Amino acid sequence: MNAEAPDFRWGVAMGAHQSEGNNIASDWWSIEHAPDTFVREPSGDAIDGYHRWAQDMDLAAAAGFTDYRFGIEWSRIEPADGAMSRAEVDHYRRLVQGCRERGMRPFLTLHHFTVPKWFADSGGWLRADAAQRFVRYVEALAPVIEEGVEYVGTINEPNMVAMFATLATGGPDALQAGLPEPDPRVAAAMVTVHRAARDVLKTRWPHLKVGWGISVQDFQPVAGSEDVFASYVHPRDEYFAEVSREDDWVGVQTYTRVRIAQRDGRPVEVLDDTAPTTLSGWEYYPSALGGAVRRIAAVVGEVPIIVTENGIATVDDAQRIAFTREALDSLWSAMKDGVDVRGYLHWSLLDNWEWGDFAPTFGLIAVDRSTFARTPKPSLAWLGQQANQRPRP
């Protein structure tokens, strides 16, 4: 792994809403507290990351990580339409400052699934002025960016945002073939918003490296399904990867493989009931990472790849280390074969709220939900050491 190279990003990732707690002005807070939803447990205080960020950064830096990906919560910056919070802007500015003081490079995510409730209630991404509203929020982050940011991700998993829209509307056959096809209107809106934000960021701060992180699983065609394989994968991730050809980098976020077969002339996901699964219900398949970056590299050409998320939901930390070791081996193999990978950011630094409950534990650090005490797992030290132990390709 080229982790010894100065520009290789060796780090960890966290999401704002999943870790901060009490993001009461967001659309997800309303979803969590509505009756009869899929949410088994609301985020509540989450892991109190809003107040304990310095402790979390101390643990990441001490483990040896060079980069720290964290999100900015739009609903904190703009809790009401047009009402920007200078105090919250300064909060996130201090996070950037905290990263740099600890020798880590901040890696910003500007949107991670949540939006302000006022924005969602007025049409969300399908508003005619959605891009302009998002750009207005981005411009309010000037003090954060100018504190010393180089890498910015505009939208986390835009393909999943568009898939959520399909599920929400209950479109035809939304659940018949596994992952639903993204809502085309929301997918197009994601592209428009991303390009508008990127253009403003690059014009105002030319030094910034701007991209977005796409959910990219290791889709594999079952023998005989090759002719329908492209029709399945293109709308679900390769469409968004094609947009990344215009960017400074593309983020690949991988957790499992998905096998695609053909049924009545249509692509469908097929599951192996005998395959082991993780706490998230996904197939245990560590080498999915290598397969995912190879496939996306063929789409984006010379655009560098950064693994912006990879990990496993498990209570067995020895299994986490084994999974991550094999995932990194598959990434290393792809890099040896010429895939341009510039970083690996593990999901996640801490156990946190996983969009419905706290049960899927992805973290390198455990969190006591009553006291918020942080307890590093052996995987934290192990992964932190990998940057120096793996040779260059």
**CATH superfamily membership:** Glycosidases
- H/E order of the elements? EHHHEHHEHHHEHHEEHEEEHEHEEEH
Summing up helix and strand content along with how strands pair, one would put the structural category as: alpha/beta
Terminal CA distance reads 6 Å
CATH class identity? Alpha Beta
Give me the CATH architecture, please: Alpha-Beta Barrel
User: Mean pLDDT, as a whole number?
Assistant: 95
Count of helical regions: 14
Largest sheet: 8 strands, parallel, barrel
Within the largest sheet, what's the order of strands? 1-2-3-4-5-7-10-11
Oligomer: single chain
- Backbone shape: globular
Approximate strand percentage: 15-25%
Q: How does this structure look, described?
A:
It is a single chain. Helix 9 (158-169) packs across helix 11 (226-243), helix 12 (288-300) runs parallel beside helix 13 (317-336) and helix 13 (317-336) packs parallel to helix 14. The chain has helices spanning 16-20, 27-32, 49-63, 74-77, 86-101, 117-121, 130-140, 142-145, 158-169, 184-204, 226-243, 288-300, 317-336, 378-389; strands at 9-13, 67-71, 105-109, 151-156, 209-215, 218-221, 250-254, 257-263, 266-270, 305-310, 341-347, 365-367, 374-376. The protein has a single domain, classed as Glycosidases (TIM Barrel, Alpha-Beta Barrel), CATH 3.20.20. The chain is α/β, with parallel strands linked by helices. The chain is built from 14 helices and 13 strands. It is globular, with a radius of gyration of 20 Å. The strands form three sheets. Strands 1-2-3-4-5-7-10-11 form an eight-stranded parallel β-barrel, surrounded by six helices. The chain has a three-stranded mixed beta sheet with strand order 6-8-9.
